[in-house]
Every structure is written in C-alpha cells, then in structure tokens.
Specification:
Number of domains: 2
Strand content: 5-15%
Shape: rod-shaped
Structural class: alpha+beta
Distance between the termini: 142 Å
CATH class of the largest domain: Alpha Beta
Length: 278
C-alpha cells in the first residue's frame, strides 16, 4: 500500500484511531525504506504533528465539555435564582397587600376611636367632653371676633315618664328622634351635644341672644310636632330651653351655668317654653 493510499484510507479516522494509524504508518516505513528515501523522517514529523493536533483537539473538546457543564450549571443557577426572585416578589406583593390592608384598618379604627371619644354612642350628638372642648374654643374665637356667641341648654320634659310608661328601649328611641328634630333646625357651624341623661346643649357661634332665641323656639316647635312610637300607641314630648349669650371675659363653664339656670326658669314657668336672659 502506498503512502497516499494509507493517508486516504485513514483520513476520516485519523483523530478517532490515531494510535492505529500511526502504528500502521510506522510499519509501512520500516518495511519499505528503499522505496521512500528521506520520507520516513518527514512522515514521522507529519504523524507527530497529527498526534499533537489530535491531543490538542481532545483537550479543546474536554475544555468545551467543561465550559458546557459550567454553562449548564450557571443556567440552572440562574433559573433557580429566577424562581426564588419570583417567589420573593410574590411574597412582597402579599406583604404589601397585607400592609395596605393593615394601614386602612388602622385608619378606620382611628376614625372609630375618635368618634367614640367625641360622640354619644346612642344619639350621635357630641358627648359632654367634646362639648366642653368646642365651647372653650368658641369662647376664644368670640374673644377675637366679637360677633356674639350663644348657648342653648335643653331638657326633655318629664322624660322619666317615657321610660316608666314605655320602657327604656322606647326612651332611647325618643332621644334619637329628639336629636334628629333639633339638628334639623341648626346650621353646619352649630354644635349639638349631650351633656347628660335627657339634657343637651347647643353651641351657636356668631349668634346674638335674639337670634339664638329664635333658633330655640324653632327647635321647641320641631320637638313638639315630632310623633314618637310606642308598642301600642303614639305620644309626643316637649322640651324646655334656656338661652344665654356669652359675656365679655366669661368662661364657657360659667356660660353653661347661666344657661342651666335659665332652663330651670323655663321649667318653673310651666315647661315647653324658651327662657332667654342676658
């Protein structure tokens, strides 16, 4: 077999079976030295080059395999991190939703607590504490503006008879209807508060005594016209009202005391009436 035939027969298997190719080539050269003078050294150099090339190819393939494995591992790590990131993002969304809900709940609770702290739970009118706070504020404002400020002291006439005759449930409903009737006569700037039991008070900013007396009379009429419902019949209630205007330098507590005295005067005069005084 010629060298050319040997090379052609092994060209496709050189790197797959290089040891066998080299062995057969060496044997050929040993057996025919006289036919190929000078070729032996060249062929050996060529085969050594091929052998080195094969080793380099294997090295590169192994390096490529390692890189492929590294890339696979990196890809797997990236996928795992992506899954973890998605899970963390989902968890954060849930936490944000829960936080928003918690903030909204706290806001609602704050509003409810503020309402509980300032209003009468039965009638919705301001409680005595809030009434005193607003009264002191209006006194300070009146000291600056000097436009007049009046206070109404109200008491439902013979309210105890309502509870005794119809029960406390009807009595509570009567208080609610009473507040509704009084509120219908007031402006947005006015303040209705429950000072205790069946006693109420109304703050009238920027209102002089004569105008406050007119408001009180309208409220008295609204209450008198209001029909209350009991289990077996209907009934009506009346209200007595004392009206006082704030004096210069007077405290709100002193104004309340004067309005109460005027209220008692209305009761002593026969109830269901308005009693005003300076």
């Amino acid at each position: 077999m010629s060298t050319s035939s040997l090379l052609k027969s092994e060209v496709f298997g050189l790197f797959d079976h290089e040891d066998e190719v080299l062995r057969r080539a060496a044997c050929f050269l040993d057996e025919h030295p006289e036919d190929l003078p000078g070729l032996q050294a060249t062929a050996r150099d060529l085969f050594q080059a091929f052998q080195q090339s094969a080793r380099e190819q294997k090295r590169l393939m192994r390096a490529g395999d390692r890189q492929q494995e590294q890339l696979r591992m990196i890809g797997q790590e990236l996928r795992e991190k992506s899954i973890l990131l998605e899970e963390q993002t989902r968890h954060l969304r849930i936490l944000n939703t829960e936080l928003a809900h918690e903030v909204e709940t706290r806001k609602t609770l704050e509003v409810e607590l503020r309402i509980l702290a300032t209003t009468d739970p039965l009638t919705g009118a301001y409680n005595r504490r809030r009434l005193l706070e607003l009264g002191e504020y209006e006194c300070l404002r009146e000291a600056r503006n000097r436009r007049g400020m009046s206070l109404l002291a109200l008491d439902i006439d013979h309210f105890k008879r309502v509870n005794d005759s119809h029960g406390h449930g009807v009595g509570d409903e009567t208080l609610v209807r009473f507040v509704q009737a009084c509120s219908s006569c007031l402006r947005a700037m006015d303040t209705l508060g429950r000072s205790g039991g069946e006693e109420f008070a109304v703050l009238l900013p920027e209102t002089v005594l004569a105008d406050a007396s007119e408001v009180a009379e309208r409220m008295r009429g609204a209450v008198e016209r209001c029909v209350m419902n009991a289990a077996l019949d209907t009934f009506r209630v009346t209200v007595s009202i004392g009206v006082a205007q704030l004096r210069e330098g007077e405290s709100f507590e002193a104004l309340m005391a004067r309005a109460d005295l005027l209220l008692y005067g209305a009761k002593d005069a026969g109830r269901n009436r308005v009693h005003a005084g300076q």
